[in-house]
TrEMBL record, chain A:
One of its GO terms (molecular function) is 3-oxoacyl-[acyl-carrier-protein] synthase activity. It comes from Thermomonospora echinospora. Belongs to the thiolase-like superfamily. Beta-ketoacyl-ACP synthases family. GO terms for biological process: fatty acid elongation. This is Act minimal PKS ketosynthase (KS/KS alpha). The lineage of its organism: Bacteria, Bacillati, Actinomycetota, Actinomycetes, Streptosporangiales.
From TrEMBL, chain B:
It comes from Thermomonospora echinospora. SUPFAM superfamilies: Thiolase-like. Residues 1-403 form the Ketosynthase family 3 (KS3) domain. It comes from the Bacteria. Keywords: Acyltransferase, Transferase. This is Act minimal PKS chain-length factor (CLF/KS beta). Pfam families: ketoacyl-synt, Ketoacyl-synt_C. The keyword Acyltransferase applies. The keyword Cytoplasm does not apply. InterPro entries: Beta-ketoacyl_synthase, Ketoacyl_synth_C, Ketoacyl_synth_N, PKS_Beta-ketoAc_synthase_dom, Thiolase-like. Belongs to the thiolase-like superfamily. Beta-ketoacyl-ACP synthases family. GO terms for molecular function: 3-oxoacyl-[acyl-carrier-protein] synthase activity.
């Protein structure tokens, strides 16, 4: 049951390898990679020392010193991405009813970087358990509870309707957009600025993934360290970034002559109820989410032109996901192009789901499917068409994107081109 | 439209562990506020909190869950166990695994766990960071752990909107049931009573620095000078009403009937905050006029400005003194994402018993024009209650619950 139809009319991106949507798409469509040795801090003591970092200059993007001081890096990325999305939409936000405008920001780890910086000071690098609060910045609470991220975006765009952060680990960026879509569909708001952000490239995050060997130790070849579906892959590459969207109801978007990137035609999430970090190899909960999203979109598996995979580059994920595609898409799983942009921009935890929605919308816009970089030697267990190395031109009207994450969350979203096929 | 019932409650509150203890203490006006025992608060300007008493996680949970969970997750798992047991769904009941999900609210995650691992990292090095850190502190932990423990594979989620998020989670649970799920375990259980969490909470200047638990948190009182935080909260089982009737659910506390959420205008705009609008949206959603609300569970910030703003919103909707208002959280402190779900639990128990629980210690400021229920419970025929919650930065949420007819 979903009421009004919801479309993307604006996109903003801050991603590794480029500034804004245009450079993001160049990187993806050219199959270049943005993974490199970590520069944001001295990573020499750690097992995994590669990451996909954003060359981000908040001042150059017009953030004031006070904004920079009170916002975590992840929040700054989101605010800049939101501004680009608003401008791209062509929608006159000043003329909107603030009460009918909302915000949904996905994030897995919130303001973790700002928190860690403050923790180091108040604890004197871990010397004191009874930390000295008098050394803390006055805005520490905004890092403590990451709903501050949604508040900052709401102030930027003038939203006074429903405003929230959605934090479901690595599916946050799909789930926040799914949530925003429901708010518009049910009539709780007319316009949502929604998406996700994360900036986790800091010692505590690197250490916690080191501890479970989830990230790659391929430190000697950072540019080719993220190898989803390749037999030589050995863990994911941590990333950062943000993608934000302007979402609105299809009919009002058409009335104002907006450019419509895609309709959010179906969305579903499931849990594996199995393990906080482990996945069962059969992929059945992800398959269930895919099936539900396709059903809601009234799309047959055979109609899919492209599948954007979670494709994190861990053996466990790649096999789980391949099994899920076979289980949910049947024979079409072997025909449809499947690719992972994490091969190029790493895995930015909660942000990546929204960055992947952006990639899907741009794939539809350009009729080009981004490749899986670094895929030379497929894992024999992963036997689908992963679009290795180079992008592929192909009419792309109907797309599936999926996510999978800690906590057991499995999410799936179907994007369609309005008018491209008979209305359901 | 699909109706949604609450068919189970699990409560872990500073003034009572378990629904019965909590409700008995709340009706008796017994507070759970006191000097912090979880760490030595002597060096901090605020030293009071609401700690959940007598909670021994090992008595309730398998040993393997202890090293991988923060204190607040253990409380959440136990609250979920109790809620599901009361609903008669401990083993899942008649529902399929994809028909049951979990939607919780979070505010700061497993912060005490996080402080320990940050200390390990910075004092000893990365090799000393726990393998559980990757999921024990993050905001999604309670939803994930409850889903695993109970085999729930349906639509799930986590909402963060500071203290307002507890109501937003229940609204999202209702949404998921309207979209086809049968049961969603929802609510919030929270707590960051560790020195690092305390430093973060102190940064707003809104914590009470009083040292007497009886006068430290006095919302709507001329002496109001901040709030006392606490830990705990409530987990609620929300269930599709038809399905619950079909399986003859043992308990029906009431219906989640209406909801509204708004965000304040930017700071300094001088415009009216969004709380009144959130109330109006919730009432309209519940299909009730203001006169249909029998009691309001207030957000009660405990600071003069926000208290005045809340009183003004209530007066605008209900007229001065137009509805009984109460603040049982004067006995628990503010529980962040757990506070509003606990208020919803209290509201449902009030509907059941026809008793409005009291606000303790407060002498209402007459200038605020509130009919505040103080001292002792007030008997009243109650059919419909409104619960309010606000979050730092401008979040406003309102939820209407109605007695199961």
């Amino acid at each position: 049951m979903i009421g009004r139809r919801v479309v993307i009319t604006g996109i903003g991106v801050q991603a590794p390898g480029g500034d804004g949507v245009k450079e993001f798409w160049s990187l993806l469509s050219e199959g270049r990679t943005a993974t490199r040795p970590i520069s944001l801090f001295d990573a020499s003591p750690f097992r995994s020392r590669v990451a996909a970092e954003v060359d981000f200059d908040a001042e150059a993007h017009g953030l004031t010193p006070r904004e920079i001081r009170r916002m975590d890096r992840a929040t700054r990325l989101a605010v800049v991405a939101a501004r680009e999305a608003v401008a791209d939409s062509g929608l006159d936000f000043a003329g909107l009813d603030p009460a009918r405008t909302g915000v949904a920001v996905g994030s897995a780890v919130g303001c973790t970087m700002g928190l860690e910086e403050e923790y180091r000071v108040v604890s004197d690098d871990g010397r004191d358990w009874l930390v000295d609060h008098s050394y803390a910045v006055p805005h520490l609470y905004r890092h403590f509870v990451p709903s501050s991220m949604a508040a900052e975006v709401a102030w930027q765009v003038g939203a006074e309707g429903p405003v929230s952060v959605i934090s479901t680990g690595c599916t946050s960026g799909l789930d926040s957009v799914g949530y925003a879509r429901e708010l518009i569909a049910e009539g709780s708001a007319d316009v949502l600025v929604a998406g996700a952000t994360d900036a986790p490239i800091s010692p505590i995050t690197v250490a916690c993934f080191d501890a479970i060997k989830a990230t790659t130790p391929r430190n000697d070849d950072a540019a080719h360290a993220s190898r989803p579906f390749d037999n030589t892959r050995n863990g994911f590459v941590l990333g950062e970034g943000s993608a934000m969207f302007v979402l609105e109801e299809l009919e009002s978007a058409r009335r104002r002559g907006a450019t419509v990137y895609a309709e959010l035609a179906g969305f579903a999430s499931r849990c594996n109820a199995f393990h906080m970090t482990g996945l069962r190899p059969d992929g059945r909960e992800m398959a269930e989410a895919i099936g539900a999203a396709l059903a809601e979109a009234r799309v047959d598996p055979g109609d899919l032109d492209y599948v954007n995979a979670h494709g994190s580059g861990t053996r466990q994920n790649d096999r789980h996901e391949t099994a899920a595609f076979k289980r949910s898409l049947g024979e079409h799983a072997r025909r449809v192009p499947v690719s992972s942009i994490k091969s190029m921009i790493g895995h930015s935890l909660g942000a990546i789901g929204s960055l992947e929605i952006a990639a899907c919308a741009l794939a539809m816009r350009h009729d080009v499917i981004p490749p899986t970089a670094n895929l030379h030697e497929p894992d024999p267990e992963c036997d689908l068409d992963y679009v290795p190395l180079t992008a592929r031109e192909r009419r792309t009207d109907t797309v599936l994107t999926v996510g999978s994450g800690f906590g057991g969350f499995q999410s799936a979203m179907v994007l369609t081109r309005p008018g491209a096929r008979a209305a359901a | 439209m699909t109706r949604i019932w609450v068919t189970g409650l699990g409560v872990t509150a500073p003034n009572g562990l378990g629904t019965d203890d909590y409700w008995a203490a709340t009706l008796a006006g017994r507070s759970g506020l006191g000097r912090i025992t979880r760490f030595d608060p002597a060096r901090y300007p605020a030293q009071l909190a609401g700690e959940v008493p007598g909670f021994d996680a090992r008595r309730h949970l398998p040993g393997r869950l202890i090293p991988q969970t923060d204190h607040m997750t253990r409380l959440a798992l136990v609250a979920a166990d109790w809620a599901l047991a009361e609903a008669g769904l401990a083993g899942g009941g008649p529902y399929g695994e994809y028909e049951m999900g979990v939607v919780t609210a979070a505010s700061s995650g497993g912060f005490e766990f996080g402080q320990r691992e940050l200390q390990n990292l910075w004092s000893k090095g990365g090799r000393h960071v726990s393998a559980y850190q990757s999921f024990a502190w993050f905001y999604a932990v309670n939803t994930g752990q409850i889903s695993i423990r109970n085999g729930m594979r349906g639509p799930s989620g986590v909402v963060v909107a500071d203290q307002a998020g507890g109501l937003d989670a229940l609204a999202q649970a209702r949404r998921q049931i309207r979209r086809g799920a049968r049961v969603i375990v929802s609510g919030g259980v929270d707590g960051s009573l560790c020195p690092w969490g305390w430093a973060a909470q102190l940064s707003t200047g809104a914590l009470s620095t009083g040292d007497d638990p009886a006068t430290a948190y006095l919302p709507f009182d001329r002496r109001a000078a901040g709030y006392v935080p606490g830990e705990g909260g409530a987990v609620l089982v929300l269930e599709d009403a038809e399905s619950a009737a079909r399986r003859d659910a043992p308990v029906r506390y009431g219906e989640v009937a209406g909801y509204g959420a708004t965000f304040d205008p930017p700071p300094g705009s001088g415009r009216e905050p969004g709380l009144r609008r959130a109330i109006e949206i919730a009432l309209a959603d519940a299909g009730t006029a203001a006169a249909g609300i029998d009691v309001v569970f207030a957000d009660a910030a405990g600071l003069a400005g926000p208290d005045r703003a809340e009183a003004a919103a209530l007066a605008a909707v209900f007229g001065p003194g137009g509805v009984p208002v109460t603040v049982p959280k004067t006995m628990t402190g503010r529980l962040y994402s757990g506070g509003a779900p606990l208020d919803v639990a209290a509201a449902l128990l009030a509907l059941r018993d026809g008793l409005i629980p009291p606000t303790v210690n407060v002498v209402p400021d007459p200038a605020l024009g509130l009919d505040l229920v103080t001292g002792v419970p007030r008997p009243a025929p109650l059919k419909t209650a409104l619960v309010l919650a606000r979050g730092h930065g401008g979040f406003n949420s309102a939820l209407v619950v109605r007695a199961a007819g």
